[in-house]
Amino acid sequence: MGQAWGFRSFGGPEVQESFERPDPAPRPGEVLIRVDVAGVNPLDHLLRAGLVPGLDGGRPFPRVLGMEAAGTVLALGADVDGLEVGDAVFGFALTGGGTYAETTVLSAANTARIPEGLSATVAATLPVAGTTAVDALDQLGLPAGATILVNGVGGGVGFVVARLAAARGLRVLGTGSAAKREQAEAIGVQFVDYTAQDVVAAVRELVPDGLDGIVDLVGGTSLRTVAPLAREPRTVIAVGDQSVPELGGRFVERRLDRENLARSARLALDGALTPVITAVHPLSDAPAALATVENGHAAGKVVIKVA
After folding, report:
1. Least crowded by CB within 10 Å, which of 33, 109, 140, 230?
2. Would you give the end-to-end CA distance of the chain in angstroms?
3. Opening angle at CA 85, ends 82 and 90, nearest 5
4. What is the residue-wise DSSP string for 156-216?
5. Over the range 35-58, which residues count as b (16 or more CB within 10 Å of their CB) and which as e?
6. What is the mean pLDDT of residues 219-223?
7. How far is CA 94 from CA 72, 87, 104, in A?
8. How far apart (Å, rounded) are the C-alpha atoms in residues 162 and 150?
């Protein structure tokens, strides 16, 4: 039996609870891992609220929170290639196993080995934030010297997008609240505080000729406010708001396979994709970790240290 945090019905934070569960048996195409570190993401509370159907793997309640983790392989399901018991790995729990737990199952096709020299803590942040950054910037395909706006630079994904963009030689502007300024500027972002100034006017002052690209992590009204700042609508890439085609932009094309995970890990080793980890919680404090992300107060990436 192992400890886990999850929920027995859909709802808000009030439905979360701690419980014990047996080690889940890996289905075909899955690996059972001992979880060392779990990443915390906005998707976690959306899944808890029942707003993202189809990612539960058909598993019954109680369901375990969390979508990304790093740990050690304990067992292999049928039809798993390229991984072995004892491997240090990181990946996605795309078949509903959850990751806020001492053990869980990951989808083997969406799991990669952790390269030597990369910590489990950093690896646990890469399945969501790392691969999203790679995918969004690859989709834009901007040359060195181009100017990009990261709308919502202060979150776990935003910081990683900004850092990778800078590593690619792009000039990076970023919007966020005042609390996010110091960390954003520390990685070379020209920061625009949306709480203290008119974002459109501030960006136009910095880039009078318009932006070469935008990666939006906020959506809604904020996306609609900044989208016209791009010289070409198709260079607006939204990570969360699927209505972006209405503005002429594109939704990020996600690649969740092992190859892209391994690529993200190599970039992290090189320092181009290193996340800004601002909080590390024990498993017993998982609700506080998720609350920080759910309430929008996380300046960077939040993780749960399990092992």
Report:
1. 109
2. 15
3. 65
4. HHHHHHHHHHHHTT-EEEEEE-GGGHHHHHHTT-EEEETTTS-HHHHHHHH-TT-BSEEEE
5. bbbbbbbbbbbebbeeeeeeebbe
6. 96
7. 17, 19, 11
8. 7
| pLDDT value at 6 more than 90 | yes
Look up tokens 């199952």; give the residue: 105
Question: The pTM is what?
Answer: 0.92
CA-derived radius of gyration, the chain: 19
Out of 20-24, 152-156, 259-263, 297-301, least confident range = 297-301
User: Token pair for residue 95?
Assistant: 């078949």
| CA–CA dist 133, 194 (Å, integer) | 22
Residues sharing a CB contact under 8 Å with residue 62, sequence separation 6 or more, in sequence order: 6, 7, 8, 17, 19, 21
Give how far Cα 7 sits from Cα of 40, 54, 79, 124, 190, Å.
Answer: 16, 16, 30, 22, 41
Residue 57 pLDDT > 80, yes or no? no
Rounded to an integer, the average pLDDT of 256-281 is 94
Alpha carbon of residue 222 to chain centroid: 20
Instruction: Please state, in angstroms and rounded to a whole number, the distance separating the CA atoms of residues 82 and 91.
Output: 14
